[in-house]
Each structure stands twice: as structure tokens, then as C-alpha cells.
Amino acid sequence: MPILAFDASTETCAVALGSAAGWLERQELAGQRHSELLLPMIRALLAEAGLALADLDGIAFGAGPGSFTGLRIACGVAQGLALGAQLPLVGVATLEAMAETAHAKHGWTRVVAALDARMQEVYLAAYERDGQRWRAQVEPCVVKPDAASLPEGGGWHGAGNGFAAYPALRKHLPAELDASVLPGAVAIGRLALPRFTAGEGVAARDAAPLYVRHRVALTSAERDAGARL
Questions:
Q1: Fewest CB atoms within 10 Å of the CB: 12, 57, 132, 200?
Q2: From start to end of 94-166, where are the E strands?
């Protein structure tokens, strides 16, 4: 079951193509250039694999939370490609993908994922691995770092740039952390595969980003103060 997976929720643009047998991956520090880079990266990866969109069984994308612009770009590209090729879509929570990345990198099974949400807030969730799946112990949310609430018990590890941006988060973690962890296209693909197998893919018209924070603009005072969403 070859699928295409990609993410544009952070400053990195990442694309992966593959199945349970293995993955091809490309990623690039994009800044604000996801709209320029994503489609060429997808075309290049398909060409490298010698595949066309019609050869795929589905498309997975990082649904959020993350950059509003990046989430819209990823969802829009996924919808456009899926509509043209009549493929099902699966949107994967970026914070869960970070837990998957941390597990692949460190073997962690209890992960608190935190992304810098700007405006002195973090996107945060806590996941515990149950067999081959993750169970959310704290659902994706946006919170002030000093108000973060985590599950009780030990063995929790931190993943994501939220811990680098807001050191106050570290006091909640008794174990290690890795602030370099990103969602990753391969992690999104791995999480999407069993969902495609279970028939959980949706039509292009039904795919949607997971914003968590439902604000898409700053006030004039916030812009004057240099705040960023």
C-alpha cells in the first residue's frame, strides 16, 4: 500500500512516499515558502520512486495544530491531488506525529509533544503508546506554558520546540526531552497506514485542518507589539 504523506505545519516542509516496507523522504527548511516547495518536492519524490498519483492508495497530511498558513496549504494540496486522482485522505494530528517521531528516535512510549504557538502559548498534547497506536492522555490544545496540565505518573518525555521556546514547560517533565523533534512526513505516513487499511480515509471535500486555536488574525495592538500567530 504505497501512500504519499506530507507536512507543512512548521518551518520545515517534509514529504514522504512509501509503505510499511520502507519510505523515501525529502525535507527542507521552508520558512514561509511551503507553497513554493511542496508540489515540486512531491513531484520529485514520485519521479524518484517511478510512481504516478494513480499508483497510490491514499494521501496523508499533517492536519495540525501548527502554522495556520502551513495547515491550509497542506490541506489544500492534499484535497487537490486527491480529487484529481480520486484518492482517500487521512489528516494526522501533528502532535501525535511528533510522539511517533520521538518513539522512532528514542523508543519513548509516553510523550508530551509541544509546538511553539507564538503569542506566549504552546500547542500541547500527551500521548501514551498502546501496542501500535497512541492514546491521547491530553488532547491537542493551546495553553500558556505555565498553565500546562499533564497526566500524573512518571516516565513522560518531552518532544518539540515548545520546550526550547518556553523553559517553564520543563518543570512538568521528570524525564528527558528532545526539543528538535518535528512532526515528520514519515511519522505521518506510518500513523496513516493503519487508518487507510481500516477504511478511515475520507473524500477530498471532507478533509479539514485541525487548528485548535480558532484565531486567524491579530488585533492592531498585537501587530504593533510584534506578536505573531
A1: 132
A2: 110-116, 122-130, 133-143, 157-159
